[in-house]
Design goal:
three-stranded antiparallel sheet; two-stranded antiparallel sheet; alpha+beta; TolA/TonB C-terminal domain; single chain; 231 residues
Amino acid sequence: MANGVAGALPAPFKPTTANDRLKGSFNSWFWGSIAAAALIHFLVIAFWPDMTAVDPGSLTREMQAVDIPPVVEIPPPPQDIPRPAVPVLSTNIDISDEITIQDVTFDANPVENLPPPPTGAGVDLSETPAFTPRTVEPELRPAQRTALQRHLERNYPPTLRDAGIGARVVLWVFINEQGQVQNTRVQESSGYPAFDQVAEQAMRAVTFSPAMNRDQRVPVWVALPVSFQTQ
């Protein structure tokens, strides 16, 4: 029985790998995962506490009425200021000799012919500035000029001095027959009342040589400037 076969031959041996074993267990892992997921969802739904929304309620606040202000009418813009007229020099002016003022000279009006000072009962020359004829003007002597300057320096308003402000005051000064200052008035103010007051006080503190009309002493009003200057 060299060519005979007593039975079937066994199948050849085929080794298995890890991949093959993983593929073989896929079905059991897949269905097991599905069952576990279903069980977890069921437990969560069954035992999860009930959740309810809280009613926040309604928040109300009383509205306050606001008074509307009245409508303000905007005034129209001011009108443009007209340009000043340009002065034009006229060459057609005819001045008659009859209205021409004659030149005033001392030759035509000698000192000897000047009228005497006004006199009479009830006449007070010191009340208001007025012209008094005179041949010699009153004069402030050097010593009195120095005293006037010192008075101005000593009583210079401190605020204006510190600010470096100077000014000029023109005073009407009434000087009597003895050369004493009897009255003062501001003819041209400095713009600062303190300067005007100090100038009047300083002028009342000095004496002049009296004014003369021919050989007679006369009271006179004179206009005198007083300057304030900082160093």
